[in-house]
Amino acid sequence: MKKTQFYILFLGLLCGLPTLAQNDTINVLNEVFLTDTKLKDFSTGQQVTVLNDSVLKKNGALLTSALNFNTNIYFKENGLGMVSSPSFRGTTASQTAVLWNGININSQFNGQTDFNTLNAAGYDNISVRGGGGSVVYGTGAIGGTVHLNTNLDFSGSTKQDIFLQYGSFNTLDARYKIKTSGKNWSVSVALARNSSDNDYEWPFEGRINKNGEFYNNNLTIGLAYRLNEKNTLKFYSEVFDGERHFSLIRPSETRTKYRDLNTRNLLEWVSEFGSFISVARLAHLDENYRYYENIASENYSFGEAKTLIGKYDLKYSVSKTLEFNTVLTNNYTDGEGSGIEENIRNIFSAALLMKHKPFQKFQYELGIRKEATDNYESPILFSAGLNYEFTDFYNLKMNVSRNFRIPTYNDLYWAGAGNLNLKPETSNQVELGNHFKYQDLIFSLTGYYIQIDDMIRWLPSENAVWRPRNEEKVETYGLEILTNWQKRLSKDHQISTSGTYAYTVSENMSAGYQLIYVPFHKATGAFTYSFKNLSLDYQLLYNGEVFTRSDNNSRYNLDSYSVSNLGIAYDFGKDNTYKIGARVLNIFNEEYQSVENRWMPGRNFNIYLNLNL
């Protein structure tokens, strides 16, 4: 087994020259589009994949769909629109960090982000970075990070975008975005409404998805004002209000529902003086949920956490090739809920980062981070990465890091079961990436290895009460491939294709079993053909078989599945100011589920109108 891991890790490096003729990465865009400066400046040795607005519109309103069809992240979805949990590089849902304009927004209660509570319409692009990131982004950044970005500029232009889509199961997706700016000011506003009866048929005669209706509303605001040439103020705000009736497995079950109200506000002051750039940030996050065990009753359980984050970032450029960064952060959280008495958690952290480019084709970075809190003992974290551009055709990347995930409110404070002696989960990991570019073709092959210690698991204690303990050691390793190719065949004809593939092994080191809901294989593909104003596009998602029992009893496995989508669109107007289109989702009517007994829709349809003013 150890020999297998060794070969997996270094296969990326050894395969360099034999793969000259293969494809490349999906939507790896120019980094100038990224709003999170740390993502741009300190991702040496790692790959950042960006999904822009046009890609996001090809998928459902909620972020699960876009990431599922365009990245290597595997999603467990309890039915369409229901709770959605990621597994990135074989890690758990709480080991993927989600950053909103650079601020970690994972739940204080369970450490996760439900990707069906994120409406894609609120963001200008979504960035995905595989591998560790705790030195820069803190807790949960073990498998990878997902970045939700809002862009602000001073271009002096005004743009409006209206997107209306209606489809099967009475599903509505309505989005409106306006961006306007002057020489010294900028405004971005995005509104979205997504709702559905969600009453699709199950693959059993006479069964439909009962109690599956949902709706959500989303408002995102970005403001910027340039005080002078050296100082700029920015403000970001987001409100998500949603309600979901949780789908029933059996018709006799009691109908339930869940309400989310999440607000996020961020004030930022950017100042430049000499060789220094100072960024002061103050963020307030409010996480609020209510769970109704019986929708006929007004009784509910709840949780609310208010988090205040102060962050100071100072960058010093010694020269054009050498820079240092210090980041000081203080997180203050006041949380309470049903089963959790009010508790306050205060965490201070300090990080030091360095990036150096001693030669034109060689760049490396180093980072170290330490936290201080009374709630747990924090480890010292580190990271190191390098990029070496051997030729215009081939680029080698390498990254090593130590990362962590802190115990959540549920882990520490759950009444009668919380464990105040928990330690953070820690991971040590390494990855090697090979990146090729030849004319219109891009291809990357990455091998990685992660060892996770002190994995927190809820297990029965001596008195039969389930309590969290630092119990497991897990290792995960694998290969990732990202490809992209675009070609203008003539003035009127253009084609583009992209794809991803992930081979993932994620094992409990004591028992040697694959973790549940982690497929060995996942692949995605996309193809677009354009002729003048007409375009056709095709999407493919393949997920391999997964275990649903910790002892890997194959009797209960979920089968592999392939889902295909097909779309057609036509651009009208001299400057393509409006577009109409239609899509067929799951065109081959695949019967599939990503969580046991939680069936997904068969073949379904939608039509849409997109106006750009």
Automatic annotation (TrEMBL):
Q: List the keywords (alphabetical).
A: Cell outer membrane, Membrane, Receptor, Signal, TonB box, Transmembrane, Transmembrane beta strand, Transport
> Native species of this protein?
Salegentibacter mishustinae
Q: Could you tell me which Pfam families the record lists for this protein?
A: Plug, TonB_dep_Rec_b-barrel
Instruction: Report which residue ranges the record marks as coiled coil.
Output: none
Recall the GO molecular function terms of this protein's record: siderophore uptake transmembrane transporter activity
Q: Which domain of life is it from?
A: Bacteria
Q: Name where it's found.
A: Cell outer membrane
Which first-to-last residue range defines the signal peptide? 1-21
Query: Cellular component GO terms, alphabetically?
Result: cell outer membrane
Record carries keyword Aminoacyl-tRNA synthetase: no
Q: How does it sit in the membrane?
A: Multi-pass membrane protein
Which stretches make up the TonB-dependent receptor-like beta-barrel domain? 167-587
Q: What is its main location?
A: membrane
Q: InterPro entries recorded for this chain?
A: Beta-barrel_TonB, Beta-barrel_TonB_sf, Plug_dom, Plug_dom_sf, TonB-dep_rcpt-like
Q: Which family does it belong to?
A: Belongs to the TonB-dependent receptor family.
Biological process according to GO: siderophore transmembrane transport
In what residue span(s) does the TonB-dependent receptor plug domain sit?
43-145
**Keyword Calcium on this protein?**
no
- UniProt protein name: TonB-dependent receptor
